[in-house]
Design brief:
The complex is a heterodimer. By secondary structure, chain A is mainly alpha-helical. Chain A folds into 2 domains: 344 residues, Na+/H+ antiporter like fold (Up-down Bundle), CATH 1.20.1530; 136 residues, Roll (CBS-domain). Chain A has 25 helices and 8 strands. Chain A has a 3-stranded mixed beta sheet with strand order 3-4-5. In chain A, strands 6-7-8 form a 3-stranded mixed beta sheet. In chain A, strands 1-2 form a two-stranded antiparallel sheet. The model of chain A has no long low-confidence stretch (mean pLDDT 82). Chain B has a single domain, classed as 3-Layer(aba) Sandwich (Mannitol-specific EII, Chain A), CATH 3.40.930.10. The N terminus of chain B is likely disordered. In chain B, strands 1, 2, 3, 4, 5 and 6 form a 6-stranded mixed beta sheet that branches. Chain B is globular. In chain B, a hairpin with a 2-residue loop joins strand 2 and strand 3. Classes of the chains: A mainly alpha, B alpha/beta.
């Protein structure tokens, strides 16, 4: 690891720490955090102070593959088969619309510019076709990061997720055909049959392997009840999947996405906690991944004439994504919000585009485009520059799309409700505490009429001294004569734990879990100890669910 | 405490022979105080003041005269380690006991249990209630002249 310049741990620590700080700064500016990660990467990387060297970035390639696998798996976990069934026609139309429109517009515009500069139609078409194919891809990672950051939920969010998940496959197909065309045009020896076969193996192989791994994980999860063990086994399988996909030339993101997609749809309840734990675990992976994306981007030595290509690429791709998505949505009668805003959520460009450009630099390195520069070189330069532009402008546009469509902040979970609630919000407050001098015969009548199993008992000053429950009275219930002379104070049970009405619901539920209590008295404060209600675990859970549904409103309707 | 042949429950371990008193006083307060003094001698009672306060506080809420000439003063306290009982047989029935049937009280069972001995406490009270409904038992109890015979009668003949 000596060649890494900085020690690997210092490098990773600095990237994580800097990325997190950068994200906080950009969040403070109300710009998506992913822009902050990339900005820190730019500062420390090739375009900035070069603290992270090219060698270091190359050495960290396995980490990038791991990050792509985790991201793919989580994106796959966002997609439900019933959503696909419901919107299948719409998704396919929008996917083809935005992908093919970006492909066509970028392909035609870059071909035109290249022809005007080089006066070589064959080379111009070859390079333009590859540019167009790469332009059709959308980066799922940064897009999904924005959707999660702003807790988006709704049809636009679902559509963005589905399209970014699927259009990598489209981009790879177009790329395979594009490079085939490019090689055919420039040398005449491209084998189309082989290209189609190679793409089929890459895509279908990834889908098949991802499916098999998901089925395997499903069975393993049956025996793994502890979340930490389930997390370890899941990450282990994802790493194996990444290794196999990388070794056999299959698409890593697609394979991981298929694994996540299959798992969530095979065993939604059992796998939910795996995705939940993995999502929490993925935060530092995301930070590092994007810092390294920024660090990798190098704009030094960019020929001036390529800026025309870059401008045409950005404009053509943006127009294609916007127009194509609008057209696809319009044709399939999608909701107005989908027509209006979906295209803005598809600008981000990342891993797949950069990966394809690197592949293009190898595939097309023998096609000269200028003195000392091949088509491959031009593509890698241009895609690097456009990635920088759209990675900085794309996430804010995703944010705009979900905000304008009213979907930001809609992905409310139980945890959100718990975190923002007090005990008083979820307790049963309509209680009448029993006085300690109340006769048992009267207490049994009142308790039978109540829908609560437990009632607080107070002394003459109204202070909580215990609770009474039918379960606690079982020893005297059969001997009804005793009810006449026993008092509530004789049968009350002491209160080992109680909670305050203004305490956090999260802390209260944790306390109940710790002491294995299903009900707990709620008091106003430590000094007065006046009962305000009963916190019933099951009732609180029902109210939390109701609140989640209430906050999400009629959005899913 | 095990289920026994007398009243469905054996009180050995809860009652001891030395905690059976023949009371000569003629008022409720004195009777209760004598029983408290005796009960407090048990190693299970760690705080006599708390026992006194607890017993009289319970009486202030409602008299423990359960009818048929029986009183069952009782309390649960943190300072009590295990359920214990003292029995008082009054030579002269206490007319100021304020029983639910307004009859004077001749037999007093004083019980103290730990704060968390909820189930045991209620089991003892319930068993005593059942036992005292038996007129023969009450008459036999009042006819006894020694602590030992009272103890044997209540505990089902166990020494």
């Amino acid at each position: 690891m000596e060649h890494l310049g900085l020690g690997i741990l210092i490098l990773l620590g600095a990237c994580l720490f800097g990325g997190a700080l950068g994200a906080s700064f950009f969040q403070w500016l109300r710009i998506p955090q992913v822009v902050g990660y990339i900005a820190i990467g730019l500062i420390v990387g090739e375009s900035g102070f070069k603290l992270v060297t090219t060698d270091a970035i190359v050495s960290l390639r396995p980490f990038n593959l791991f990050a792509l696998g985790i991201i793919g798996f989580l994106v796959g976990g966002e997609l439900r088969i019933d959503t696909f069934r419901k919107y299948a026609r719409q998704f396919v139309a929008i996917l083809l619309g935005e992908g093919l429109a970006a492909f066509m517009l970028v392909g035609v515009s870059t071909t035109t510019i290249l022809y005007l500069i080089l006066h070589d139609f064959t080379v111009a078409v070859a390079a333009g076709t590859v540019f167009g194919a790469i332009a059709s891809a959308t980066d799922p990672a940064s897009t999904i990061d924005v959707l999660w950051e702003y807790r988006a939920r709704g049809v636009v969010t679902t559509s963005i997720t589905a399209i970014v998940a699927l259009d990598d496959a489209l981009a790879m197909t177009l790329y395979g055909l594009g490079t085939g065309v490019a090689q055919l045009l420039t040398s005449g020896n491209a084998d189309f049959g082989y290209e189609i076969w190679r793409i089929a193996v890459e895509l279908l192989g990834a889908i098949l392997v991802g499916f098999i791994f998901a089925v395997g994980l499903r069975y393993l999860l049956r025996w793994m009840h502890k979340p930490e063990k389930a997390l370890a086994i899941s990450i282990g399988l994802i790493l194996l999947l990444i290794g196999i996909a990388n070794h056999t030339g299959m698409d890593i993101i697609l394979a991981a996405m298929m694994m996540g997609f299959t798992l969530i749809n095979l065993v939604p309840r059992r796998s939910e906690h795996v995705f939940s734990v993995l999502r929490g675990f993925s935060a530092p992976i995301y930070v590092l991944f994007f810092v390294l994306v920024g660090a990798r981007l190098s704009l030094s030595g960019l020929p001036l004439w390529l800026w025309g290509i870059i401008a045409a690429y950005v404009v053509g791709r943006s127009a294609g994504k916007l127009g194509g998505a609008w057209l696809g949505a319009k044709i399939t009668g999608a909701q107005p919000n989908v027509r209006k805003y979906l295209g803005f959520g598809l600008f981000a460009q990342g891993g797949v585009a950069v990966g394809l450009s690197i592949m293009a630099s190898q595939h097309l390195s023998n096609i000269p485009i200028a003195p000392g520069m091949s088509v491959g070189d031009a593509i890698i330069f241009a895609v690097t520059a456009t990635t920088l532009i759209v990675q900085v402008s794309g996430p804010p546009l995703v944010k705009m799309a979900i905000q304008r469509s009213g979907e930001a902040g809609r992905n409310i979970t139980d945890e959100d409700v718990i975190a923002s609630s007090k005990v008083s919000d979820m307790m049963a407050g309509d209680i009448n505490p029993f006085n300690e001098s109340m006769r048992l015969v009267d207490a049994v009548k009142a308790l039978s009429a109540s829908n609560l199993d437990m009632v607080p008992v107070v002394d003459g000053g109204g202070k909580l001294i215990g609770t009474i429950s039918l379960q606690g009275m079982r020893n005297v219930l059969i001997d009804q004569d005793t009810w006449q002379w026993l008092l509530v104070s004789d049968v009350l049970e002491p209160v080992p734990e109680c909670v305050f009405a203004d305490a956090s619901l999260h802390d209260a539920l944790e306390l109940m879990a710790q002491v294995h209590a299903t009900q707990m008295p709620v008091i106003n404060n430590k000094e007065e100890r006046k009962p305000e209600g009963i916190l019933d675990y099951n009732m609180a859970r029902r109210r939390i669910t109701d609140e989640v549904i209430h906050r999400q409103g009629s959005f899913d309707a | 405490m095990a289920l026994g042949g007398n009243g469905g429950m054996s009180f050995d371990g809860v009652l001891s022979e030395d905690r059976v008193l023949f009371l000569a006083c003629d008022d409720k307060k004195s009777a209760l105080q004598e029983l408290i003094d005796k009960l407090a001698l048990s190693p299970a009672i760690e705080d006599k003041a708390a026992l006194t306060e607890g017993i009289f506080h319970r009486e202030s809420l409602m008299s423990t005269g359960i009818g048929l000439g029986v009183g069952v003063p009782h309390v649960r306290l943190e300072s009590v380690k295990k359920p214990v009982m003292a029995v008082g047989i009054c030579h002269k029935a206490l007319s100021d006991y304020e029983s639910i049937d307004n009859q004077p009280v001749s037999i007093i069972f004083m019980i103290a249990a730990g704060e968390n001995q909820h189930a045991e406490h209620l089991s003892i009270l319930s068993a005593l209630s059942r036992l005292c409904k038996d007129e023969g038992f009450r008459s036999e109890l009042l006819a006894q002249t020694t602590s030992k015979s009272v103890y044997q009668l209540i505990t089902g003949g166990k020494d």
